[in-house]
Amino acid sequence: MPFEQNEVNVNSNAGPELQTRLLTDLINPELLNNFQIIPGRVRNIENDKIRIVFFNDLPNDAEVQRFKDINFQNQFHHFVFISDWQYQQFVNALGFPLNLKSSIIEPGFSPIQVDWEAKKNALENNMEFCYTSSPQRGLGILVPAFDNFAKTHPDVHLTVFSSFKIYGRPDLDKQFEPLFQQIIDHPKMTYKGFTDHDELIEYLKTSHVFSYPCIWPEVSCKAMEEAMSAGLLCVHPNVAALPATSGALNQMYQFDVNPNNHVNIFGFQLNRAYDNIKNNYDNVISSLQFTKFYADNRFNITKCAYIWNNLLNMLAQAYPSADSRVIPDKILV
Predict the structure, then answer these.
(1) Residue 16 pLDDT
(2) Considering Cα of 111, then 112, then 117, then 120, what sign does the dihedral take?
(3) Per the CATH hierarchy, to which homologous superfamily does domain 116-298 belong?
(4) In the 8-state DSSP scheme, what is residue 216?
(5) What helix, strand, coil percent values describe the chain, rounded to 5?
(6) Residue ranges of the chain whose pLDDT lies below 70
(7) Nearest-angstrom CA–CA distance, 112 and 16
(8) Predicted pLDDT of residue 10
(9) Among residues 126, 135, 136, 133, which one has the least CA distance to residue 158?
(10) Domain boundaries, the chain
(11) H-only helix segments in the chain
(12) Beta pairing partners, 189
């Protein structure tokens, strides 16, 4: 398989794995046969292939430390990153060179069809807030913030789609079970755990606020990109790659590393989002329609596949034969 699988990602249904499955269907299979595309974790090297490492992680990931060695770096023909912010982290932490051996290809998705009238009508029941990422990324901030918020807002509801089952690692959920139970026991919250991606997309179509008090250094954020496409008001801090990914179009706030401060800050942001939607929704919709246009064009999977195809064609011309793809074991003395 050109986009390699390993013991970490073989059972995963997270963003990077959904991405590579979509790309496999959109890239010429004869072209792909020339490549070994490795998702950050090198298990073997195929000398007859053009070797690309496709990074979705941070440079402090244990598996990535091997790339500090310039001789190891030089065993690969190209590196692909998913955001400029991520690439700069690799340059700063691991000494990746600023040259044409690296590319940034942002993740893509299929644009989501939105019925704006149905979304507006759904407000007659509850204003629907949601969290659609793994629990360690900010759920511990959201639950107490929303609990306080809901005490003074009877017409709100939070649905949480969050579980390490998305990575094929349900064992990692155990440490978050008390938090999940708080959600289950709360009258204004619903815990969905891991949900099929198509079902999640259907839910987003009538939801209103993507509630993401992120504490994780995201290298990109497919969950937020899809929420933007689905017409949600996205609320998140200015941490890591989120400002660049959002295009500064969302309701973004100053991050605070102190958890208690963050809970209070996010509670204020929830109130701000609620008031804006309740009192000014027609104008909010106009803004969200522009945000959707931006996300659908910037992160369109067709555009993403086009960039991948161009890169692969360029590399196939540069390394046309198996002999040309062999790189000496040692570049430096």
Answers:
(1) 61
(2) negative
(3) Glycogen Phosphorylase B; (3.40.50.2000)
(4) S
(5) 50, 15, 40
(6) 1-2, 4-19, 21, 329-333
(7) 18
(8) 53
(9) 126
(10) 15-108+300-325, 116-298
(11) 15-26, 29-32, 70-73, 84-94, 116-121, 139-150, 177-185, 197-204, 222-229, 242-246, 259-298, 301-318
(12) 158
